Amino acid sequence: MTATGTVHFADALPLVRDQAGRTPAPGAHFTQIATAVVRGRSLGLSPWAKLLYVVLRSYAAPDGTCFPGYATLQADVGCGINQLTRAVRELEAVGLVARRRRGQGRPTLYTVRSPGERIPGATQTPVNREPCFTPSVKLESLQRVAEQDSVELDPEEQHHPQPPRKLAPTPIGRRDPSGASDDVLVAALIAHGVTPSVAQGLVTSYSPTTIRQQLNWLPHRSPAKNPAGQLVLAIREGWPEPPDVAAAQKRTAAAAHRAEEAKRNDLEDEARRREWEAKPPEERIAGRLAFWIQGRRAKRHEPTPAEIAGRKAELLAELAAGGGVS
What we know:
326 residues; two-stranded antiparallel ribbon
């Protein structure tokens, strides 16, 4: 018989006394876990896999079956979706858990067993927690896992009520009370290839700022075979800003600065033109008349008053005809 230890977690079992002879308080609930899992040396389980096994045991019916969704398991275990997926695969590999998908929008059915208890149809394979994948292959694999498991985020068919989600703080005024901004974000995610159910789940679980950032940063990330999966994973794991985003922002800011400077120069030129056109005609031609007189004197010919008057009349006539004397 497999030795067991007692973990304070969920479903009620018959009360037993501990080593000190104390009896648990009325209403306390417990989950019995095999010692081989708790210590985990022979099975080679990671801490996340051990804790996930405890959580699944707490939900399991007498026949070992349960169907909590991924959102519920993430909240109970307290880890990200990638750690949770790896933990499930560890438990499957050593024969402690078998899972069966039940279709789109329905959470997976888990069958939980004790060490050494064979699960019908389950195969045991060695656990390799550090596969030697290239970064691109590993990223593609994580993206595929994120999309495959995202269908389990629907909380309507959970085995137990789902605990409240911890939502990221929403900036004041950024989310419209009517939900219009949510609809815009859902539409934007769908336009990038995300399925409607996954898009709705992301908008419900993460702040609009986080989703907008990842949407804006997506064009700056390395190309992926599955851009939708890359986007979903980036939102869920809070990927940092790509390095070239800052450079792109600097280029955009520099272009905006040049455009603003050109606009300011145009306005200043227009103001000077209007100021010049508002001056009296004699004042507007004074500069050209003085230049003409200096030119005549440079040729050692002092213009007579009659010549000066004639040149002045010519300049006034050009100005009146729209010659733009300056």
